[in-house]
């Protein structure tokens, strides 16, 4: 299953559970990094693109740093997939990777 198909299935489920996908909302894109330096460098780059960020150390053996990059957008499969792929490529340039997305139900 492609990332686009996976995201489409998630959005269909959210909609069937009552989420209104017609309204723009803040979408959180999660990323994991092996160290604070990489996490902070990634956060700095996405902040330049207008994302709000949160950097946090977590309890796990690998990829101990989480960065959430958040931005308001229409919750369409195309928007989410394109953003997720682009941010993942950027995260990988800092030894990180994407770790999913989500938003609060409206």
Structure description:
The radius of gyration is 14 Å and the shape is globular. α1 (3-16) crosses α3. It has helices at residues 3-16, 36-48, 77-92, and strands at residues 25-33, 52-57, 65-73, 97-102. The mean pLDDT is 95. It has a four-stranded antiparallel beta sheet with strand order 2-3-1-4, with helices on one face. The protein is built from three helices and four strands. With 106 residues, the chain is α+β, with helices and mostly antiparallel strands. The protein starts with a helix and ends with a strand.
Topology readout:
Layout: H1 3-16, E1 25-33, H2 36-48, E2 52-57, E3 65-73, H3 77-92, E4 97-102
Antiparallel strand pairs: 1-3, 1-4, 2-3
Helix pairs in contact: 1-3
